[in-house]
Amino acid sequence: MNVGAFICSCAGTCDIDLEEAREGIDDVEVAASSRLLCQDGLDGLEHVVEEYDLQQLVVTCPEASAQEKITEAATELGLHPDAVAFVDQRESAGWVHDEPQATAKTARLVNARNAGLEEEAIHQSLSHETGDAVAVVGDPETAAGLAESADVTLIADGNDFADTEYDLDDVTIERGRVVAVDGSFGEFELTLRSRVTEDCISCMKCVHEGPPGKVTRHPVDIDPDVEDESLPELCPTDAIDLEGVERTLEADQVVYPDATDSARGGRIGFYTAPLTASKIAAIERQLGGITKPEFLDLEMDVCAAGDSSQAGCNECVEACPHGAVERSRIDEVEFHTELCQNCGACTSSCPTGATMLREPSNERIAREVEALLTPDEVERSWIPGRSGSGIDEAVVAFVCSESAEDALQEYGRLAAAGRAEVDYPPILPVRVNCTDTVGEAHVMHALAASADGVAIVGCGGSCLHSGPDPKAELVDRLNRATTDLDLGQRVEFFAPSPDAPDEFVDSVSTFVDGLEDSPVPAGEHEATGGIDDPDRENPAFDSHGWTLESVRTILEHVEPEREVIRGLKDFGQVEVDDACTLTPTCSNLCPTDALRRTKTGLEFNHERCVSCDLCEEGCIEDAITVHDGLDLSLLPENRPDEDDPAWTTVFEGSMLECRSCGKEFTSERSAERIKGEVGDLVAGMAPHADGSIFDYCSDCRSKLLYRRSGE
C-alpha cells in the first residue's frame, strides 16, 4: 500500500521544523509538508496523492473542521474516508515543546500511527435485543422527557409528586425506596422497600392524620423514621406495614441520579448524575437493544479459569468494572460482550490471551511503541541520547483516550492562548482506550524496546472504569520488577487535570529528570509476542508470553543480582512437598501443560506457568504450593547442561508397574499408603497372587479375585 505523510505547522503556530520532521518519517512513499495544509496546501496535497498513487494518508491535523476539508479532498480523489488518519502535532507537540522536541515528536507520532495502521483490526459488530422499559429513580423531569419514547416507571424513592410541574400522565409511578439494583442491561432488577403495600387506595386518611411532612400523597408512602404505632389503625385496607415490605421491579435500563459512580459507573444501561443530553440520547438510542462494535477476541480454549469443578484464574472477573464477565460455573467464566465498554481491563489482566482487545490490539500497540523508539539515521540527530537537542529522554506514555487525552489537549490550548506556561518533557504518547488496557506486558515491552521510562496517563478519580488511582498496584509491582532487573524504578502513573497544568508539568518533569538512560539499545527489538515453544498454543501477544519475551530482551543488557524477579503476576513457581503421591490431578488440571508426570516423579515447566493456582487448588493431597515471581534460574537458557532444560524435577518418586501386565497404574507411595490403611482387611483374598494384591492394576486385580471366587 502506498502511504503518504503530510505535516502541517498550522499557519506557523506550531514550533516545528518541517524539513527536519519530513526527514524523520520512515516507511512511506512520500513525506510532504505545508504551512497551512487545510487551505493553501490542499492543491499540493491533491497533486502528491495523484503523483504517487497514494492509498493511505497520515496527516498532522487535530482540528475537526480542518480534518473534514482534508478528508473531503481525499475522497474526491477516490480514497475511502477511513484511509485518512490524523495525528496531533499541535496540542501535544508544537504548542507545548520547543522546536527540536516538537519536530522529533511529530515525526515519531507519524511513524507510530503508520505502524499501527498496518495492524488495524477489521470492524465487527454484535447485537443485543432488549425491551423499552426504563426505571427512573426520583427524577420526574427525566421520566417525563423519556415518556414519549420509552415505557417509563418513576420510582418515588421517598419523593412526593402530587404537585410536580412535569407531565407524568404516560409514566407509571411506583412507591418505595430503592435498596438494591442487580442485573445488567436488559435484565435489571430493582428492590424497593416501602411501608405502604399495594392494597393502598390513596384515601389520604394517613396523609391527613399522620405526622406532617412524613407521609407523601402521590404515591402514598410513610417515611422510615416515623415510629407512630397508631398509623396502621387508620388505614381502611390494612395497607400500612411499619416493618416495611419489599418487592422487585424489572427494567431494561435504569436512571438513578443519586447512585454512586463507584457502584455502577460506566455500565451500559445504568445512568447516574449528571444526566447530560448525551446520556439521555444514549438511553433513547438503546431502547429495544443495541448494535455495537465487537471489542473482544475470545479464545476460551486457552482460558485458565478452571477445570473439573476446580476454580483457577479469576483475573478477568475481578478486573472488569462493568459486569461483563462472570464466573458462570465454578470452573468457567462467561463473557457478556454486549456489556463490554472496551476498557481493556480483562485483556491486560488475562495471562493466557483468552481475551484480547480487537482495537487497539496488543500487536498494534507494540508496533506503535517500537516506531516511537526506533532511531533514525540523520546527520543532525534528535534521537534520544544522540545529541543535546530534541528528545533526550525517551518516555513512552500510555494515554487514556478519555479525560486524560482531553486534559493534555487543553494544556496545549492554554499554552497557545498565552493563558498558562506549559512546557513539559516530550513524552511519546500511545493512545489506549483506558489505562485499564495497560498491563505488565505493555510496560515491559516498552522497556525492552529501549524506553527510559513509562508513564501511564489516566483519569484518576474521575475514571468511570477503575476509580481513583487505578494503576497504583500495577505501578508498584512493575517498579519492584524493574528494580529486581537492575533498571531501577521506571514507571509512574499521572492523572492530569485540565485546570491544573502546573501540577502535571511538575510531576512529569520530576519523573523524567530522575530517569537514567536505558541500557537497552534503541531500534533492535521487534516483538513476536510469544515464547519459542512449539507445544504452547497460546495466541501471540498474550500477557505471559509477551512479558517473558520482553524480560529476556532486557536481560541481554543488564545483570540483576536477584534470581527471582518479583512483581510480575503472570509467573509462578511450583513447590511440591512429600505428601505428593503422584496422582495425575495436577497435570490433568494444568491449563498450560506446565506440569507432567514421569516415571521418576513430577516435572515443572516454569516458562509455561501463568500462576493460575489451579494445581494448588486441585491437589487432593495439598502437596502443591505456587509462589509468585519469575525465577530466572528455571528458564531453559539458564540450564544448558540439562537434557530437557525447560523442565525441572519438583518431586521424585516412582510409578508402580502391574506385576501381571506391566502397565503403570499408581505411584509406589500411593500403593504403600493404601496398603497401610486396608492391607490387613484384604490379606489372603488372592492366594494365587504372586506377591501383594496391591502390586496389581485394577483389571488384573479383578481377574485374581474372580479366579479365587471360582474355586
TrEMBL record:
Keywords: 4Fe-4S, Iron, Iron-sulfur, Metal-binding, Oxidoreductase. PROSITE patterns: 4FE4S_FER_1, 4FE4S_FER_2. One of its GO terms (molecular function) is metal ion binding. InterPro entries: 4Fe4S_Fe-S-bd, 4Fe4S_Fe_S_CS, MvhD/FlpD, PSI_iron-sulfur_center. Residues 517-537 are annotated as: Disordered. Residues 331-360, 600-629 form the 4Fe-4S ferredoxin-type domain. This is Ferridoxin. It comes from Natronococcus pandeyae.
